[in-house]
Design goal:
Elements lengths: L11 E2 L5 E9 L5 E8 L2 H14 L10 H12 L5 H13 L14 H13 L4 H16 L25 H8 L5 H9 L5 H6 L5 E4 L2 E6 L2 E5 L2 E5 L9 E4 L2 H8 L15 H14 L8 H12 L4 H8 L6 H6 L4 H30 L1
Helix pairs in contact: 2-3, 2-5, 7-11
Length: about 375
């Protein structure tokens, strides 16, 4: 139940020795105030419960909180502190997935109830990731009310989709180089495996020189939500905020992009347009690979070339079971550049071959 006001009444001691505080949180259709009466054994207990009711917009007694209310409270508690894209994903999941249990009180949920909801969504065609992430959201929401729901291991989800094997990177590069999506694609696959939102968030002022090399700062994301761009002056994770060596080839491509100010975006184009041209280009050459797969190509190729995972994690901003090492080990910029030179040599070799092939073909 959403509140419209935070007007409260004083704590009263009842004849039975307990304490009560009424919270006014809005008005009914007839104009009369909507009040919630909170009762506890001590005055402090009642005051804390009342403040929690106001903050979370729901009754703090778990036995009176529905799944829908718990999830809404959880999402509200995360506003302005998590990425807009993550928040949007939560809202989509809350609105469209596991709907058959939304009216249950969180303390009443049983494995059989959750499994039925999973089965319904699976029958609708939703896959493992969509359903599992929706249940993870519900479990997290219940946890803020100190209710532990059954582990996901007790449920049966649809089987995970087997990821298709990606085409070799050199073949992909031969298609991308010289195309209209060359710059965004190379930023994604060559500069630390950037996400498309990070690529679109890069500004000309993010480029700088230091310690004998040229770098680009990854400091923000430009996310497309419901067809509109949302600029987030933060990255998806703390480790995603990073400085990545900028190869001369990409710097030269960027130098050809006209701009007026340092805060102009390097890739100032709608996400949908980039994706459409990228998809058409790969389809034309018989390839199927998402733009985000370029990030995977970066990691796979770097690993295959023998680059240390410590350096790879720093470049790509990944967090995994080795988070401790990734956070606390200080990797010198010179070491990063030396390791990346192996990848640079690979990339320049493909570029030279591709340019030669296209020139010979034109002749």
């Amino acid at each position: 139940m959403k509140m419209k006001s935070n007007i409260t009444m004083k704590v009263q001691q009842l004849s039975n020795g307990k304490f009560r505080k009424q919270v006014t949180y809005g008005k009914k259709a007839n104009g009369k105030p909507m009040r919630k009466s909170i009762v506890g054994d001590t005055e402090l207990e009642v005051i804390i419960a009342a403040e929690e009711f106001k903050r979370l917009n729901v009754d703090v007694n778990p036995s009176k909180i529905t799944v829908k209310e718990a999830v809404e409270a959880y999402i509200d508690s995360k506003r302005n502190v998590i990425a807009a894209s993550t928040l949007y994903g939560y809202e989509v999941a809350a609105k469209n997935r596991l709907q058959s249990i939304q009216g249950y009180f969180i303390t009443d949920l049983k494995v059989i109830d959750i499994q039925r909801a999973v089965n319904i969504d699976a029958e609708r065609g939703l896959g493992y990731k969509s359903i599992k992430s929706a249940y993870d959201l519900i479990r997290s929401a219940a946890s803020i009310f100190e209710v532990e729901l059954p582990s996901a291991r007790k449920l049966r989800f649809p089987p995970k989709n087997v990821k298709a094997e990606l085409p070799d990177l050199d073949k992909v590069l031969r298609v991308i180089i010289g195309s209209s999506v060359e710059l965004p694609c190379l930023l994604a696959v060559w500069c630390g495996g950037m996400r498309i939102s990070e690529v679109r968030g890069l500004q000309f002022g993010d480029i700088y020189e230091d310690d004998g090399g040229r770098y680009i700062r990854v400091r923000r994301a430009r996310v497309c939500i419901n067809g509109h761009d949302v600029i987030e002056n933060r990255n998806k994770t703390e480790l995603s905020t990073r400085d990545v060596p900028l190869p001369d080839y990409i710097y030269n491509l960027i130098s050809k992009v006209s701009h007026k100010n340092d805060d102009d975006f390097i890739i100032n184009e709608n996400y949908g347009n980039i994706k459409a041209r990228y998809d058409r280009l790969l389809k034309k050459h018989g390839m199927k690979m998402t733009f985000h797969d370029l990030r995977a190509q970066f990691a796979t190729t770097m690993n295959g070339l023998g680059v240390q995972k410590e350096v790879l994690e720093k470049l790509g901003g990944w967090a995994n079971s080795k988070v401790l090492d990734a956070v606390y080990i200080r990797t010198p910029k010179q070491r990063v550049r030396d390791s990346l030179k192996i990848f640079d040599d690979f990339m320049y070799g493909v570029i030279r071959d591709t340019r030669t092939e296209k020139t010979d073909g034109a002749a």
